[in-house]
TrEMBL record:
Belongs to the ROK (NagC/XylR) family. It holds the Pfam family ROK. InterPro entries: ATPase_NBD (IPR043129), ROK (IPR000600), ROK_cs (IPR049874), WH-like_DNA-bd_sf (IPR036388), WH_DNA-bd_sf (IPR036390). Keywords: Carbohydrate metabolism, Xylose metabolism. Transcriptional repressor of xylose-utilizing enzymes. PANTHER family: BIFUNCTIONAL UDP-N-ACETYLGLUCOSAMINE 2-EPIMERASE_N-ACETYLMANNOSAMINE KINASE, ROK (REPRESSOR, ORF, KINASE) FAMILY. This is ROK family transcriptional regulator. Gene3D superfamilies: 3.30.420.40, Winged helix-like DNA-binding domain superfamily/Winged helix DNA-binding domain.
Amino acid sequence: MSQLFSKLSREQMKTFNQKVILKLLKEHGVLSKAQLSKISQLTVPAVTGIIQTLLQSKLIEEIGPTKTSRGRFPATYKIRSNGIHILAVTIATTFAKAAIINLDGEVKEICQTTLPKHVTSEQALSYVEKLVQQCNPDQYQIIGMGAGLHGIVDTEKGVLVFPPQLSWRSFPILEELEKRFSYPILIDNDCNTLVLAERWFGQAKEGETTVTLNVDYGIGAGIYMNNNLFRGSHYAAGQIGHTIVAEDGLECPCGNRGCLEMHASEPSIIRDVKSKIESGSASIATDLAENVQSIQIQHVYEAALLNDELAISMLSRAGALSGKAASSLVNILNPDRLILSGGILKSNHTFFEPFQKAIQTNSIQASTQSLEIVKSDLGTHADVIGAACLWIDQLFDSSIALESIIHISNLDD
């Protein structure tokens, strides 16, 4: 895979122009050659040549003439959403997913399974293999696999360096995936893939700098800065879950104490609710789960929606802590928008409002005067959409030649 992307096309300008036309069609929907020429400032013959290549690649399709006020009705073109597809997988702490995603970010097939506690890397990959088979990828024109992974991912070496909630360390994940699958494979941290999903299909289509904060089993941030994914010098950017928010707090798998993840993630919320109930506090969550020990995060969310005081208190506290930690990112990066994502969205406004307030309170005015703080609207499959966006990003917004990515000559008619 590294060799594929280490060799740039000799005709770099040709590649650049192809991406310009492709991106314009994605942004505008339907355009004619004349319209594409006018917007891109390329000549009509140049646009015509690019259109032919994109038609051959199955990336676009001709949809017939459009009426004009005079003269001939010109042919128009749009992205061919289902011409090619991407196989997307995610490996999280408690589950794995596989999906087939089209160029519009639509989920065509989806399979998911729960992972056992203390799952080994070999076990997890076996689950992924089965999920991929269940998605019937042979029925689709797959250009590659994108994998979103929990933890710090060295995308250059293909190594899962440190997944805090798993026992794996420095695991050669890319090599192991390539042993099992024949597709070209791109990998990244799951929060990085989530911010790409927002950039292409969600709340971050506009603006140059976006931060996503994903709160569920763990807490992490994805940073899209100056129109590029920011990974940091050692691929550890965005590890906001390991910001210290409680002095002498609980010990975290990372080795520190008082990390945000230990005091505001879904498991920590469940733990705190159970502890309060066992100490004498009342909560509807007990009735919803039938007993204290069976309380899961969905019971806490449901209790909060039923105005349960304890559930609201614990979720609000987690929101305030997360917002205070996120304010540091806001002050440092000065993003256009901050997008909250993850299972925590099921709490409705109970987490979001104190989260939003804490950011406004703890950030300087210059950083928040035009900041948009919003919830993700990508839904429960944002993770696999994000994994697919590793390839979407290559297709529409990279310097890699299209021929290198989709192997045009090998596409079936």
